[in-house]
């Protein structure tokens, strides 16, 4: 966990430096549009382990609300023939069936607030800034407004590779694959259902 905490501290330094260069934080106050279609977003085991700390610290009623949102998403996508494995394999394609619907919202978004903010996954820490994603520079359309290429993008590829490395020791014997990921709706369901 220490290495993962170092990684997110480093990300925090790099996002702060980019915000300083740009002269302000990139996101308008109160915007959470990017949390609206992330219910099936897949995360690494290193991110999941950290996120589990934040979820377990939530008051019982909030955990219940988060779990119910995750369950609603899972019911919807499974009615459409998806399973956990299919969601991971389909990637963003699986988000299309829930996009724009309440089932598409991140289960940890309650009343427009991220209830696990300090424990959020890596992409949630960097989206809004220009990021190097494979060969492309990606950026939220609402931020940097066509000026993102003026800045050196955050090395998201490197962050993701670090997450995969840190996830290897967390894999079960059956899942030795370093790229193993889990959709957040399923992760929440596994973690909170029995509570
Ligand atoms: S974890 Fe938080 S920041 Fe990330 S998508 Fe969910 S609500 Fe948004
Ligand atoms: S990244 Fe974009 S959509 Fe997300 S909070 Fe910032 S401005 Fe809003």
Describe the structure.
- It is a single chain.
- The chain has one domain.
- Helices cover 45% and strands 8% of the residues.
- It is built from 7 helices and 6 strands; from the N terminus they run H-E-H-H-H-E-E-H-E-E-H-E-H.
- The chain has helices at 2-22, 45-57, 60-79, 84-90, 122-126, 156-167, 184-192; strands spanning 42-44, 109-110, 113-114, 131-133, 136-138, 181-183.
- It has a two-stranded antiparallel sheet.
- A hairpin with a 2-residue loop joins strand 4 (131-133) and strand 5 (136-138).
- Helix 1 packs antiparallel against helix 6 and helix 3 (60-79) crosses helix 7.
- The chain is globular and about 45 Å long.
- It starts with a helix and ends with a helix.
- The mean pLDDT is 91.
- One iron/sulfur cluster binds at residues 27-28, 31-34, 127-128, 140, 142-143.
- One iron/sulfur cluster binds at residues 35, 38, 106, 108-109, 114, 116, 120, 124.
CA gyration radius, whole angstroms: 17 Å
Strand count, sense and barrel status of the largest sheet are: 2 strands, antiparallel
Biggest sheet strand line-up: 1-6
In total, how many domains does the architecture comprise?
1
> What order do the SSEs take from the amino end to the carboxyl end, as H and E?
HEHHHEEHEEHEH
Portion of residues in helices?
40-55%
Mean pLDDT: 91
What's the total helix number?
7
Assign the structural class, choosing from mainly alpha, mainly beta, alpha/beta, alpha+beta, or little secondary structure.
mainly alpha
Low-confidence stretches: none
Heterogens: iron/sulfur cluster
What's the β-strand tally?
6
Distance between the termini: 24 Å
């Amino acid at each position: 966990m220490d290495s993962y905490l170092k990684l997110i501290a480093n990300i925090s330094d790099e996002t702060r430096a980019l915000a300083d260069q740009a002269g302000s934080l990139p996101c308008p106050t109160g915007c959470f549009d990017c949390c609206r279609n992330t219910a099936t977003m897949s995360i690494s085991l290193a991110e999941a382990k950290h996120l589990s700390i934040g979820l377990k610290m939530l008051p019982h009623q909030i955990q219940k609300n988060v779990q119910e949102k995750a369950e609603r998403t899972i019911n919807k996508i499974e009615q459409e023939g998806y399973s956990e494995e299919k969601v991971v394999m389909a990637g963003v394609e699986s988000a299309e069936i829930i996009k724009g619907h309440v089932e598409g919202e991140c289960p940890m978004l309650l009343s427009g607030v991220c209830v696990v903010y300090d424990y959020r996954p890596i992409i949630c820490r960097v989206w809004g800034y220009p990021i190097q994603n494979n060969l492309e520079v990606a950026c939220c359309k609402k931020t940097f407004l066509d000026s993102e290429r003026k800045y050196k993008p955050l090395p998201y590829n490197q962050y993701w590779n670090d997450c995969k490395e840190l996830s290897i020791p967390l894999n079960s014997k059956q899942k030795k694959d370093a790229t193993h990921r889990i959709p957040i709706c399923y992760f929440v369901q596994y973690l909170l259902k029995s509570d």
